[in-house]
Design a protein that fits this description.
With 161 residues, the protein is of the alpha+beta class. It has 4 helices and 7 strands. Strands 1, 2, 3, 4, 5, 6 and 7 form a 7-stranded antiparallel beta sheet that branches. A hairpin with a 7-residue loop joins strand 6 and strand 7.
Length: 161
């Protein structure tokens, strides 16, 4: 019952937020800060609430999407580019050590990036953490960030630490 309530509230929030003037019409070319925050929060909540196979992907993608909104890289990306970078972060966190995930903008030919995760570390409190290196190339300028992602087994969801 609680999950259903949360799902309904999240859906109402998503619909009203997306239809607000600050988000409506932004598409992939707008600054998208509000849309990304709403998308991250709702994506994480919905992914977690729905459970099943989509639980991991929805929660992680939503959480990472929301987390990267405040990053230096994200401030220079449009909504589609932020989504591609968030997906690359999820893929890198779940990939073998050193395997690079690439992403490319659909809207700007001079914007692309890579994401590579370091080896997982096991902390004394039981958490597993990985440092992820995001490198974005925006109009010929290289921008690099290294957020740290953690999870507490048996959970499979990585969260920005």
């Amino acid at each position: 019952m609680k999950k259903m309530f949360l799902l309904i509230v999240a859906m109402i929030f998503a619909v009203t937020s997306v239809n607000s003037p600050a988000v409506a019409g932004e598409g992939c070319g707008g600054s998208g800060t509000k849309g990304a925050i709403v998308g991250g929060a709702v994506g994480g909540l919905l992914g977690h609430s729905l459970g099943g196979k989509n639980k991991l992907a929805g929660t992680v993608l939503g959480a990472l999407g929301g987390a990267i909104v405040g990053s230096v890289i994200a401030k220079k990306l449009d909504e589609c580019e932020k989504q591609k970078m968030a997906e690359a972060n999820v893929n890198a966190a779940n990939a073998p050590v050193g395997q690079t995930q690439n992403w490319t903008s659909d809207t700007r030919s001079d914007v692309h990036g890579t994401v590579t995760a370091a080896a997982p570390e096991k902390l004394a409190d039981g958490r597993q953490c990985r440092t992820v290196t995001n490198v974005a190339y925006i109009s010929g300028q290289e921008v690099r960030e290294t957020p740290r992602l953690c999870r507490t087994p048996p959970a499979t969801e990585w969260k920005v630490a």
